[in-house]
Description:
CATH class of the largest domain: Alpha Beta
CATH topology of the largest domain: Spore Coat Polysaccharide Biosynthesis Protein SpsA, Chain A
Number of domains: 2
Number of strands: 17
Number of helices: 11
Radius of gyration: 21 Å
CATH superfamily of the largest domain: Spore Coat Polysaccharide Biosynthesis Protein SpsA, Chain A
Distance between the termini: 38 Å
Amino acid sequence: MYVVIMAGGVGTRFWPVSRERAPKQFLNIVSDRSLIEETYGRVAPIVKEENIFIVVNEIYRKIVDMIFKNRHVQILTEPYSRNTAPCIGLAAVHIKIKSRNETLAALPADHFITHDKAFQKILLAGAKAVEKEGICTIGITPTYPETGYGYIKRGIEYKLVDGHKVYKVDRFVEKPDIKDASVYIKSGEYLWNSGIFIFNVNTILEEIKHHLPSLHEGLKKIERAIGSNSYPKILRKVYENLDSISIDQGIMEKTRGHIYMLPGNFDWSDVGSWKALYDLRKGDYDPMGNLIDGEALPLDTKNSLIYSHTKRLIATLGLKDILIVDTKDALLVADIKRSQEVRRVIEHLKKNSKKKWL
């Protein structure tokens, strides 16, 4: 089996800590290791190092080289960020040269997962389920009506693989509003879309050929150039003309092929916001329900997150449900329940050409 770790995102909802020069996947926000190191460590026990591909924007190549300098992983760079469909396609054509019929698992670099062994068993079961045909994803049993995640409607039970139930997927649903999300939760038929996909290399390339023909044409050009001096130039030229599209929208919501789902029996989060980080680290709360990372004095303050790696002391008085993130050049103060909206700050900075804070 091969594993592709997709590490090209910017992580705008973790501003001002996550920036274009150092996005979320390279930050130590859930442990003393970066999220990409956590992801690598999760799959390393079951996959050969040389079979792990990390796909990253070329501007982060030096960061990845430094993190994995003593590892024999394969690093592929993208000249431009074009979302997950081109990312997976690029890895697939490189892997195809090594093994046309091998199984490939594509994982986001910035997710949080507990119980590594349970995750590994699910991943291996998914690989076995689709080693000849089909696409498998991992669904997460929802615990509340989250509007920031996509959902998967579970179909009939398909088969049992190594003791794990494999279901057919009825359909994929994009991020719903709170009303629809609540209906999904009550039905018991929907799971969160983890963004983890497993398929045979040939299968995904055929799906791209059928549903994303322009991407397929570009990938053929890239494939022919692999190993040649012209590869960097052709890669850049192809990527300049690619649409930015996710594998979910480009393939999963369109395909008529066999799509399966394994429920994940582990805790999972895409760590998509400061509120998500706050919820994850419940074991680190103080007696008032505050998560403090840095120097802070929270007086009569409850259920808040204060994050600062500067030398300044942050003192608060009489606050509740507050998010404070302090960096050397920017300070964010917000209602923690609205942390999904931090991307609005990024949009405003871009619109007003305030690039030095991006």
